[in-house]
Amino acid sequence: MSAAANKKRRQFIQQMTGLGVLGLAAAGGIFGASYLKAEPLRLRPPGAVPEEEFIGLCIKCGQCLQVCPYDAIRLEDIDGKVGVGMAYIEPRDRGCYLCDAFPCILACPSGALDHEHDSIEFVHMGIAVVKNPGACLAKTGTPVPDEAIDRIYDHTTVLSAAERSSHHVEISDSDPEKAKLQKQLLLKLEKYRKENPCTICADLCPYPEPLKAIGMVKAKGGGLLPEIREACVGCGACVELCPTDVIEIIPRKTYADIYGEKGEHHA
């Protein structure tokens, strides 16, 4: 499909879905214009078109969720301001790990996740910021506590009850690919138990060239701190894996928006 045809298709779907929402609003008389805005702004899956367009295009089918190898995508529940079923990511519970094939984009039938943006150079979900540097284990020289890694086991859905309770996994040939990927992540985390200093966020960044997205630098007064770099796409993996909740993602923002054109860090 040509770019022009694809754009025309997306505009048509957006108009139709938008009319549906507006019809509900007129009939019920209970929704204002703010109904069409997520508060706070949600982190959307890779390939998401601009927010207002995304809200008009997403048909809440859940196909992106079904194909996500890491179970990163959620659907908005009854409290969601933009309606039940809208796709989003809650990075503290599960970040996006930037799958090579971006199956979520390929599965989207409406254009809310743009099929022309199914490669890493087009992924711009948001930007990471270091919000609480004083709590960073690399800064304080504190070993990674067991519970910080156990937490990732506890919300990894592909595990058996025994694997989740024991916090121990092994990869077998019979495991589905989805289980293998998620277990590989856990095995990578295991080496950080009681290790000092913690460099999990930088070491396990899924960006193809991670040092372009995040790195550890010397902190004032000693220790290390994560530094967010220009290639960061806001996938949220570092947020999920950080033992002390030091990093957050600001959806829809760019590196220049937060750090300036010269990379002046404000976090």
TrEMBL record:
GO MF assignments: 4 iron, 4 sulfur cluster binding; metal ion binding
Task: Give the keywords, sorted.
Answer: 4Fe-4S, Iron, Iron-sulfur, Metal-binding
Superkingdom of the organism of origin: Bacteria
Q: Which InterPro entries match?
A: 4Fe4S_Fe-S-bd (IPR017896), 4Fe4S_Fe_S_CS (IPR017900), PSI_iron-sulfur_center (IPR050157)
What positions does the domain 4Fe-4S ferredoxin-type occupy? 48-78, 85-118, 224-252
Query: Is-annotated flag, keyword Amino-acid biosynthesis?
Result: no
Entries under PANTHER family matching the protein: PHOTOSYSTEM I IRON-SULFUR CENTER, PHOTOSYSTEM I IRON-SULFUR CENTER-RELATED
The protein's name: 4Fe-4S ferredoxin
Which species does the entry assign this protein to?
A: Nitratifractor salsuginis (strain DSM 16511 / JCM 12458 / E9I37-1)
